[in-house]
Write a structure and sequence with these properties.
The chain is α/β, with parallel strands linked by helices. The protein contains 16 helices and eleven strands. It has three domains: 5-152, NAD(P)-binding Rossmann-like Domain (Rossmann fold); 162-269 and 295-309, no CATH class; 323-396, Rna Polymerase Sigma Factor, Chain: A. Helices cover 45% and strands 15% of the residues. The radius of gyration is 20 Å and the shape is globular. Bound molecules: nicotinamide-adenine-dinucleotide and magnesium ion (MG).
């Protein structure tokens, strides 16, 4: 066995994917990149393959695969190109891969996360939607496969960093956790003016630079809603023991309130390379490339309650967690469709919340107690079709 960590980066052309490669490039002695993947950004994937020479590159949108093959051949790059969504599972389960960075966006990442979990990999989870959809099924695959699940989402990494390695002590140690949220670009906007905001305004995040889908989720605070659900599974906490608070400076990344009311927090500059480096090196620490906090120039660290009128989406998380099994998958699928339509300029910003709330209200997940993955995927597809029709009616 190689002494280096053999890494597959799924979604390598995205924001988390490129930050992961940035950290990996700082540690060639300990990290070897074995696989990369992109959906459709051919030029970025080709450039990454030429730099990293991974054994495999996956093009999930198969219509772009031949172009990637052609360009790599022209450049004399030996990387083998695999195509289609199933190929993500193949590289995630490859016995010659030790760690998988799950950085695909959306529920499309679920099957490859499960493949990595079932084959006992170190699973670095950025793809929160996969856990929101998979829930108990996902966590069961992690346990049964003997995988090491390490959160990459900054809030969950913060909580994870505040907790001891021995998971069996978490339940008696933790009273509740507090996820921090920046409040996004509309924290101080008049709620009545939110109907008219544009995709570019929604994507202009004040503290983090991210992909467009999660940027819109941050503006609606659906990102925090998904993170509440993510925390429920990662830390095995009842919904009432997960709280969210607005912290505009994005310096305190989240907090654990212990049984004795002592509060443990993790702080740092808002740079995803910190949780990524932590996940790659765990239980050690390595250089991440992030700059340090300038303590004396920090004016203030402030905290505010999330206003339900401005951010009604946040509260859908607790609603979904208390609903019938599969409700969180319904919420996620509705949100993916709504955000896609909003980014395409076809529905308004507040329509995202309306569609999500309506889906939660109107769609009965009808899942058996222990659903198979195919049943979760079928539910996801059913919700997408239904919410797509509602969205069409809004634009008609
Ligand atoms: P992004 O849009 O920048 O990148 C997404 C990646 O997934 C790209 O490589 C793209 O090619 C690939 N992809 C897109 N659709 C796909 C599909 N249908 N099948 C397979 N691959 C597909 O997104 P991002 O901001 O890097 O976010 C990735 C994940 O990490 C999301 O789940 C997000 O919620 C989570 N996350 C991101 C950040 C951040 O700072 N960007 C922070 C925390 C969590
Ligand atoms: Mg986050």
């Amino acid at each position: 066995m190689s002494s280096k960590l053999r890494l597959a980066v799924l979604g390598s052309t995205g924001s988390i994917g490129t930050s992961t490669l940035d950290v990996a490039a700082r540690h060639p002695e300990r990290i070897e990149v074995r696989a990369l993947s992109a959906h459709s950004r051919v030029d970025e994937l080709v450039a990454q393959c030429i730099k990293w020479k991974p054994r495999h590159a996956v093009v999930t949108d198969a219509s772009h695969a031949s172009e990637v093959r052609r360009q790599l051949k022209e450049q004399g790059c030996p990387t083998q190109v695999l195509e289609g969504p199933q190929a993500l599972c193949e590289v995630a389960a490859d016995p010659e891969v030790d760690a998988v960075m799950a950085a695909v966006v959306g529920a499309a990442g679920l099957p490859s996360c499960l493949a990595a979990a079932r084959t006992g990999k170190r699973l670095l989870l950025a793809n929160k939607e996969a856990l929101v959809v998979g829930g108990a099924v996902f966590m069961q695959a992690v346990r049964q496969g003997g995988a090491t699940l390490i959160p990459i989402d900054s809030e969950h990494s913060a909580i994870f960093q505040c907790l001891p390695e021995d998971r069996s002590t978490w339940a008696r140690r933790v009273d509740h956790i507090i996820l921090t949220a920046s409040g996004g670009p509309f924290r101080q906007r008049d709620p009545a003016s939110l109907e008219a905001v544009t995709p570019d305004e929604a994507c202009a995040h004040p503290t983090w630079v991210m992909g467009r889908k999660i940027s819109v989720d941050s503006a609606t605070m659906m990102n925090k809603a998904l993170e509440v659900i993510e925390a429920r599974w990662l830390f095995d906490l009842e919904p009432e023991r997960i709280k969210a608070v607005i912290h505009p400076q994005s310096i305190v990344h989240s907090m654990v309130v212990c049984r004795d009311q002592s509060v443990l927090a993790q702080l740092g500059t808002p740079d995803m390379r910190v949780p990524i480096a932590y996940g790659l090196a765990w239980p050690e620490r390595i250089e991440s490339g992030a700059s340090g906090l300038e303590w004396t120039s920090l004016k203030a660290l402030t905290f505010e309650e999330a206003d339900e009128r401005r951010f009604p989406g946040l509260f859908l998380s607790w609603h979904a967690l208390k609903g019938p099994l599969g409700s969180t998958a319904v919420l996620n699928a509705a949100n993916e469709v709504a955000v896609e339509r909003f980014l395409a300029g076809r529905i308004g910003f507040m329509d995202i919340y309306r569609l999500n709330a309506r889906a939660l209200e109107a769609i009965d997940p009808q899942l058996p107690i222990s659903p198979a993955v195919d049943e979760l995927i079928a539910l996801d597809q059913r919700v997408r079709a239904c919410v797509g029709q509602w969205a069409d009616a809004l634009t008609a």
